[in-house]
Amino acid sequence: MTRLWFGLLLLAAFPADAEAQDAPVIAEPMVFDLVRPLGARRGELEVNALAQRSLSGPHRTVEWAPEIEYAFTDNMAIELELPFEDRHVTDYKLGLQGTFGQFNRGRGIHGVQYLGLWNREHRRFQSSVLYVVGNRFGRRTSTLTMVGIGDVGAAGAETRALLINHTSFYDIAAASTAGVEVNLRIGRARSTLVMPQLQQGLSRRIQLQFGLGAARDEDSAWRPRAGLRMVHQL
Fold this sequence. Notes:
mainly beta, 12-stranded antiparallel β-barrel, 1 helix
């Protein structure tokens, strides 16, 4: 649990009472989403669930994860998540996120995200820490990038990995955003995911995200992969 306390102390090092400003509007990636958007305001509450499945190959298990996200003060948020494979809970996951502030005349925003995960099968706790930066380049285009160290667990350096997740967005209309998410895990178990996606607001509080792309693990072929996330702001 030492790494969990490290995550709490890391976020506590940044003032939560920083001046609340209107954050630049930047969409969240579908696969590797945020613990609320950067610049979240106190009291924001969201529930969502992501489901993914490979469309070819031997492993076609439905991977899905319901989660709840809450901003307990301005610029600070927490999430609880239950990853499943079919009907089996594989992990218990905790996320913490803090916002440093804005830059580039309010068009950019950055922060830090900590993820702690307890794997039920291996009975092992793992941690990830990522720097998060979003930029608004114009009326329709924006990006969100996450870079950090992941899978830091009891097994030591052999499971450690460099995590990179970058998404480029284009706002098609007020409630419709297209994006391309690229996720890289560089380490002992290298993997790559490329996921074009569409985010559509169905109402003021409900959003649907859908993606169809391809993924590959180390020494394996590219395989098509589909994903779907439902989001409800409470």
